[in-house]
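Hey,
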Amino acid sequence: MLGFYFTRSIRPISLCLLAVLVASCGTSPKGKYLKYTGDNLKQNEGVIHICRTSSLVGAMGGIDVFINNEIVANIANGSVVEVVKSAGMQVVIFRLGNGSQFGVKVNLNPEGHSYVLQTASLNSLKVLPFGLVGTNMGWQSLVVDKSTFEGNCSTYSTLKIQMP
C-alpha cells in the first residue's frame, strides 16, 4: 500500500521537473540584444552563423556565446544562432557554465557570411581508476565553409540576433 501511494505521489513531481528541464533548454538572446526579424543586410553588415551540434556531452546545459567580449546568446544543444553584425574581425567565444572558454576569430566581410561550428571533441585517451581506459572529452570551435555548416546544422532551429 505504501509503494502504491509513493508511486502515485512522485509521478506529478517528476513530470513537473521534466517540464522545467525541457523549457530551460532553448536558445535565447542574452544581454542587450534581441531577436532580429529583418531580412536585408545594411551596406556594412554581415552574418555570423554559429551552430552548436547535437551531442550527449553537455546536452542539458546551454553555452554562452560572446562576440568581441559582448554576450549575445545562450545556445542550446542542436541549435543555430545567426548574428547580424558590422563587418570586420570578430572574436567568437563560447563560455561553459564552469567558466572555461574557447573560441575562434572570423573575418566578416560586408554583406558576407561566416560559419562557426561548435562541437564536442575527443581530446585524448586517459587511464581511469581500476585500469580502465577512457577518453578526455573537450570542446572545439571551427570556422567552416557553408556546405560543411549546412551538412551538420541544416535541420536545427535558428535564432537571429542583431548587433550594432
